[in-house]
Design goal:
CATH topology of chain A: Rossmann fold
Largest sheet of chain B: 5 strands, antiparallel
Order of helices and strands of chain A: EEHEEHEHEHH
Number of helices of chain B: 17
Distance between the termini of chain B: 54 Å
Strand order of the largest sheet of chain B: 1-2-5-4-13
CATH architecture of the largest domain in chain B: 2-Layer Sandwich
Oligomer: heterodimer
Number of strands of chain B: 20
Distance between the termini of chain A: 40 Å
Strand content of chain B: 15-25%
CATH class of the largest domain in chain B: Alpha Beta
Number of domains of chain B: 4
Radius of gyration of chain B: 23 Å
Number of domains of chain A: 1
Shape of chain A: globular
Structural class of chain B: alpha+beta
Structural class of chain A: alpha/beta
CATH class of chain A: Alpha Beta
Shape of chain B: globular
CATH architecture of chain A: 3-Layer(aba) Sandwich
CATH superfamily of the largest domain in chain B: Sulfite Reductase Hemoprotein, domain 1
Strand order of the largest sheet of chain A: 1-6-5-4-3-2
């Protein structure tokens, strides 16, 4: 069981994430945390200097964080994108498809089952920010 | 009909294995019911009053005989020998054991079917016109577009934890047989000035506690931008739809609170961004899917003549047969509303028979309608009499399509844990009271819809006559509504006044239908007379 998962090879970013309002007040912070209701687009002018964006899931059924992640990746963010909070095994694969590459779940997750969840589906139907080629692309080249 | 390729098949097969694992973890206690609930819901498995209920998707209501027969097999093997066809063109089984569910999904996958996203706060089965591909009044077959949307919406990672469930309907005719504007997104295929096919978008309709008719937000979305436009509509909803109150969480509330213009502005802004992301399948993909929906090999020499010398057959033809685009053929609707029966129920033997008849007479194709009936879309007129005789022997030939006994009813308190009142026994009693076919035909087209609670699964807001069951101090009480329509003349029904007992509401229905007969002018349907005469006159007749 693991309580911090990172699917990146670069070094862990040491600076702790600050809240969105305090991030917007500081000229040099490089890590930020946004809550479910906050607008990820407010970060777009600062993506170059950000190394870590943490998106909170207050309950697993609150899916706003999926859209926040997609918006950040679509806008070119390449740093660590971490899902925190009520992050459960059965949502991890969808989170990864939306661009999350790190997870800080409230409760530890079975590592082996996580690997299984990531590799379970050979194909996907949609183009998302994980860059997996959708089935229609396989059909039409 | 669409057929899975290796990719589609792999997706549903994988889903079966995934769900098998999840059920195993639940039964072993590794998943709490709270954690398991959204997973089982996304596979169509509800926990109802007495047992699990499994809802199987019938995409846009279209099936082959083989698929239909599998539905009969499931009823026989895993349930109590019957199934219930729903207003979402699906089928559900009411007595399922959790441990059987993975095997049922495996059986379904073996005939290219599934229960993916038939529940949960995600994009549900895409519904469509049950006469698609057979009717002369459509500009194209809407089902390839529905299939494109089905694939896009299946396992969509961004839109699987929406504020609330999300329903699409796609039609391609000015005649709306799918209650299109009562969906979260309703799409009507249209032609632009260049003669190209595109999608007109209506967003924010729905029934439930707060019924709304969807406003049009875009008059033309080209085929190769359909997916990114739908993504934009969903993304604005996912980000800003209300999550503080599940009764205000549907997209209709967001569109209503923002206003249509502001919602549209946000969608267009998101679309301008998303349309650049390469989300749209190439037009070749829609063309590939469309290939599967070519006309069957009609006999161009088929005779258009019909011998109507058997009066019972003539009645059925007059009521249940619709005009086909191909001369010599007809669209036949099999009514699942026998006298005193449960609307939408069919036994496994009836399901098997309908599968056989589809193979024998309808180029191996069936449709489920949102009115809980079954359609054989392509029947040669010269075969209609033989078809009718077989249906009649099996109790499947009520000649009551669109008449007062062709009612929609939700499962109600007999099954549903949300219901306040029973719907089914009321539908059965109404069916008995108005059993005389001559009387029904005298009343003409009359859409009667019954819901057992304000969630409106029985579409009472869209009934020419609607009935809403409520709980009044511990007893079931029924409110009467008049004037709704789910068709192209969409309107929302209004409550007449204080509610009634079960027998009292049936008496009130007789009062309003009597008033209609007395007041109607030439050619007017019940709904037309109601609209002309107004609620006050009907109220007066009911309450004196």
């Amino acid at each position: 069981m693991v309580d911090a998962i990172r699917l990146r090879d670069d070094d862990v970013h040491e600076e702790p994430a600050v809240s969105l309002d305090s991030f917007l007040d500081q000229a040099n912070a490089t890590a930020v945390r946004i809550e479910a209701g906050e607008d990820a687009r407010q970060l777009l002018p600062f993506l170059d200097r950000l190394s870590l964006i943490e998106i909170d899931f207050p309950v697993f059924g609150d899916g706003r964080g999926y859209s926040a992640a997609q918006i950040l990746r679509e806008s070119g963010y390449t740093g660590e994108l971490r899902a925190s909070g009520d992050v459960l095994l059965d949502q991890l694969a969808y989170m990864r498809r939306c661009g999350f590459d790190a997870f800080a779940p409230d409760s530890p997750i079975n590592f082996e089952l996580m690997q299984q969840a990531f590799s379970r589906y050979d194909h996907v139907y949609q183009a998302t920010s994980d860059q997996r080629g959708p089935i229609w692309r396989l059909r039409h080249g | 009909m669409y057929q899975y390729d290796q990719y589609d098949q792999k997706m549903v097969d994988t889903r079966v294995e995934e769900f098998r694992d999840q059920v195993k973890r639940r039964l072993a206690g590794d998943l709490t019911e709270d954690q398991f609930k959204p997973l089982r819901l996304m596979n169509g498995l509800y926990l109802q009053l007495h047992a699990y209920m499994l809802r199987v998707a019938v995409p846009y209501g279209t099936m082959s005989g083989k698929q239909m027969r599998m539905l009969g097999h499931i009823a026989r093997k895993y349930d109590r020998d019957y199934g219930h066809f729903t207003t979402r063109q699906n089928i559900q089984y009411n007595w399922i054991k959790l441990e059987d569910a993975p095997d049922i999904l495996a059986d379904l996958a073996s005939v290219e079917m599934h229960a993916i996203q038939t529940s949960g706060n995600c994009i549900r089965n895409i519904s469509s016109d049950q006469f698609a591909g057979a009717t002369a009044d459509e500009i194209a077959d809407p089902r390839p577009w529905a299939e494109l949307l089905r694939q896009w919406s299946s396992f969509h990672p961004e839109f699987s934890y929406l504020p609330r469930k999300f329903k699409f309907a796609v039609i391609a005719s000015d005649t709306d047989r799918a209650a299109m504007r009562l969906h979260d997104i309703g799409i009507q295929l249209v032609l632009n000035e260049a003669g190209e096919l595109g999608a007109k978008f209506f967003v924010g309709g729905g029934m439930g506690r707060t019924p709304m008719i969807a406003p049009e937000i875009r008059n033309f979305v080209p085929a190769d931008e359909l997916i990114s436009y739908a993504e934009a509509c969903l993304r604005v909803y996912n980000r800003y739809g209300r999550r503080d109150n599940k009764y205000k969480a549907r997209i209709k509330i967001l569109v209503h609170e923002l206003g249509k213009d502001e919602y549209t502005r946000q969608v267009e802004e998101e679309f301008a961004h998303m349309n650049q992301l390469g989300l749209n399948p190439p037009v070749e993909e829609l063309a590939r899917i469309t290939q599967y929906f070519q006309d069957p090999p009609f006999d161009k020499q088929a005779s258009d003549d019909l011998n109507l010398s058997d009066p019972d057959f003539a009645l059925w033809v007059d009521q249940n047969i619709a005009k086909h685009k191909q001369p010599g053929y007809a669209i036949a609707t099999i009514s699942l509303k026998p006298r005193g029966g449960i609307p939408g129920d069919a036994s496994s033997a009836q399901i098997d028979l309908m599968a056989d008849l589809a193979e024998q007479y309808s180029f191996d194709e069936l449709r489920v309608t949102h009115s809980q009936n079954i359609v054989l879309p392509h029947v040669r007129k010269s075969d209609l009499y033989a078809l009718w005789q077989t249906l009649d022997e099996a109790g499947l030939a009520p000649a009551n399509l669109d008449l007062i006994t062709d009612s929609i009813a939700c499962p109600g308190l007999d099954y549903c844990s949300l219901a306040n009142a029973r719907s089914i026994p009321l539908a059965q009693k109404i069916s008995e009271r108005f059993a005389d076919l001559g009387r029904q035909r005298e009343l003409g087209e009359l859409k009667l819809k019954i819901s057992g609670c304000i969630n409106a699964c029985g579409h009472h807001h869209a009934g020419h006559i609607g009935i809403l069951g409520v709980d009044r101090k511990g007893t079931e009480n029924y409110q009467l509504l008049l004037g709704g329509s789910g068709a192209e003349d969409a309107s929302l029904a209004k409550i007449t006044g204080p509610g009634f007992t079960e027998d009292g509401v049936i008496d009130a229905i007789e009062t309003v239908t009597d008033l209609y007969l007395e007041q109607r002018e030439d050619g007017e349907r019940f709904i037309d007379t109601y609209r002309r005469v107004g609620m006050a006159r009907f109220k007066e007749a009911i309450y004196g």
